[in-house]
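Bench notes, afternoon.
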Amino acid sequence: MKIRFALVAIVCFSALNMYGQISDNCVAKTLLTAFSEKAYSSIPVTDQQLDLILKCGIKAPSGHNQQPWKFTVIKDETVMKEIINNAISGNVLIIISGIESESGGTPDFDCGLAAENMFIAAHGLGLAACIYGSPAGNINLKKESFQIPTDYKAVVVLRVGNVDESVDAVTAATPRKNPEEVINYYK
C-alpha cells in the first residue's frame, strides 16, 4: 500500500511539475495558445517585428542545413489582394519559396519548417498569423510578377498582422483533436 501511495505521489508531483514548467515556458505557451487567426486589424506590423519574424524563419532547421528557401515580403495591399482576397492594409504577406530540386532533398518540408518558425515568432510577438497553402499554385503561374527567384517555386504564404480585437476568434476556432485520437505509442 505504501508503495502504491508513493508511486501515485510521484506521478502527481511529476504532472504538477510538468505543468509548472509549461506555464514558465514561453515557447510552450505560444505553441499551446496560437491558432490560425482570420480577423486582422489595419494596424501595421512594424519593421522591427517583421525583421525578427524573418530572422526566425532563417533559423529554421533544414535537411543537411541546405536552407533551400527564399522569402518574398509583400506589403502592398493591391498585390496582397491578388494572393489573399481579404488581406488589408497593415498586413504583411511572406511568400516562402523553395528551390526546385531534382536531386531529392526536402525543400517543401524545409519551407514548412521556416513558415512554422515565423508563425510561432509572430504569435510570440502578440501578432496574428496564418499559413496558407492554396495560393502557391496561382503564385507559381505568375512567379515573375511576384518576384519569385528563378529556380524557386512558392510553397506556402504566411500572413502576419495585428489582431482585430473586436472579433471573438477564440470561441469560433475549430477545436483540436484529443491526444488519444492522434497519438499512437509503439509498444
